[in-house]
Specification:
Strand content: 15-25%
CATH topology of the largest domain: Alpha/beta knot
Structural class: alpha/beta
Order of helices and strands: EHEEEHEHEEHEEHH
Strand order of the largest sheet: 2-1-6-5-7
Number of strands: 9
Low-confidence stretches: 238-249
Helix content: 25-40%
Radius of gyration: 22 Å
CATH architecture of the largest domain: 3-Layer(aba) Sandwich
């Protein structure tokens, strides 16, 4: 039986060194060594045609800052192989926000993700004729697109089969069920003035499961009312099932 082909990431970046350490560390590094995923860094500066290798220029109409020119980005993307299921993604604050569901879609539904990292004041608008998707890390502005690209890499690769040692652990994380994660504790049972909840030390698995579920509901309700309301809507309920025992953080 042949193993599935690795998910291919092609990163269009003016600063390839940004990814050196992260791609060699932790689960990301292990996934690449085991060829569960492949990451290639392409510098658009290598596709410039002038002697100064210029990748940016002043915006027409005036304004502050510089824009990345379209030619090197188009040339960089067009130099890549074309796999059957792929997206060409521009990292931009104007894109759809990253969510767990987006990571799941990318992890399970694609062969190739091309990620374009913006810089300066962004990219020439004509680059958007090339991309098929725009993605944002959040409602804020960063100095470069490499940071959200790394977040997307991490979020997607950890969902690929074989990356996480205990796949079942992925089922109980925040956002997987529409709720935030429940509080977790380890030894010692008593630390300073805080004790781990007795129910978690009881050995009663049904009671533990119930407590965790109620904690997820209460934590989501208090910390992320937007997620809580969405969860209620998806459950087809007007109220949560009950008020769980409050745990200490």
């Amino acid at each position: 039986m042949t193993s599935p082909s690795p998910l291919r990431f092609d990163i269009i970046s003016l600063f390839p060194d940004f990814f050196t350490s992260p791609l060699q560390s932790g689960l990301l590094g292990k996934a690449l060594v085991r060829r569960i995923a492949e990451v290639y860094i392409i510098n658009p500066r290598d596709f410039t045609t002038d002697k100064h290798h210029k990748v940016d220029d002043e915006p027409y109409g005036g304004g502050v800052g510089m824009l990345i020119k379209p030619e090197p980005i188009f040339a960089a993307v067009e130099s890549l192989p074309v796999l059957p299921r792929r997206e060409i993604i521009l990292m931009t604050p104007q894109g759809e926000p990253m969510r767990q569901s987006l990571f799941q879609e990318f992890a399970m539904g694609y062969d190739q993700l091309i990620l374009i990292c913006g810089h300066y004041e962004g990219v020439d608008e004509r680059v958007r004729h090339l991309v098929t998707r725009e993605v944002s890390l959040g409602d804020f502005v960063l100095t470069c697109g490499e940071i959200p690209t790394l977040a997307l890499l991490n979020g997607v690769i950890r969902l690929l089969p074989g990356v996480v040692g205990k796949p079942d652990s992925l089922k109980y994380e925040s956002f997987e069920t529409g709720l935030l994660d429940y509080p977790q504790y380890t030894r010692p049972a008593q630390f300073r003035k805080w004790a781990a909840p007795e129910v978690l030390r009881s050995g009663n698995h049904a009671a533990i499961e119930h407590w965790r579920r109620e904690q997820q509901i209460q934590r989501t309700k208090s910390r992320r009312p937007d997620l809580y309301q969405q969860w209620l809507k998806e459950q087809g309920e007007g109220e949560e099932g009950g008020e769980g025992e409050e745990g200490e953080d």
